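Q: For a teaching handout, I want to show students what a protein-ligand complex looks like in token form. Below are the inputs, and the small molecule is zinc ion. Please produce the holo structure.
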Amino acid sequence: MYVYRMIKNNSSDGAIGSCQQHGALGEPVLLLQALWDALRSQQEVLSSPYTTTLLAFLVHLVFCAPYLALDVLGHISPGIHLYSISRSAQPLRVCLRRWLDCFLRVAMRYLTTILPGTVLYQRMRNPSFPYLAPSCHQLFVEVTACLLLFDAIFFMLHYAMHRVPWLYRTVHRPHHRNQVTFALAAQDGSVAELLSLQMLAVGSTWAIGCHPMSEAVFHLINTWLAVEDHCGYDLPWALHRLLPCFGGAPFHQAHHHVYRGNFAPYFTHWDLLCGTYLYAREEPARKHEGRTMRRRRRKKSLGSDCVCE
Ligand SMILES: [Zn+2]
Ligand SMILES: [Zn+2]
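A: Here is the structure, written as tokens, with zinc ion included.
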């Protein structure tokens, strides 16, 4: 049973009536409100594009950190490689070099692309901090809708980038420099690709009309899912094992190996509907590697950079 109440919104950016939904016990709603109040108290700091860019970068690094630890621990305890999708162990020096190179590229992209993009976006749109937190139901619905919308448009853009050679060469190829993915590679892409993904994420929340708290949760989940897609591990507690509608790391790793399918970032339904689903879990890594080597040889002989089919 729910009780609805209308409370006058006394946010600084304009007074709007708002409907707040409370559960019978109220605890989750109170928790959300307490969290939102804590965030609102920092609204001056959180409104700065410099803070939000720095936070986004740090969140990405924090989500990647456990996988860096697994990569390092894999050289001490080889049992960890059983969960590695590619099963190809590299020397620790090569592994750390790969992480460092990628870190420098991603940091540079944040400085030269994400930060200016965020400054421009914040100038165009004044961040709002309404008085009330969303209800748990509202937060869940808005975040799910954003994920589905982002996934659908990303699928179409990604498909186009692999089908149109010019788009692949100018926008998407830098992301495919990592044939064997690792967590940090989630944001290793060209300026055009990172900007378009940033606009797509922001545009999805705008199209759904999200509460700012739902927007923040969506960006957090979006970052986490991108990291998990690229982590290179098929761990027993991974999201795609709990919820089969998610593709997860094996699904996206197959895309980086074979290029011709699994274009959706998170869910599997678009690839299943459009016939581009790769049965990643049934295809052993060696098969992917063999296929990719043949493709590379063919590509060399054709003198082309595009690997689309
Ligand atoms: Zn990728
Ligand atoms: Zn791709």
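A: Two things your students might notice: The chain has one domain: 3-302. The CA atoms of residues 44 and 127 lie 10 Å apart.
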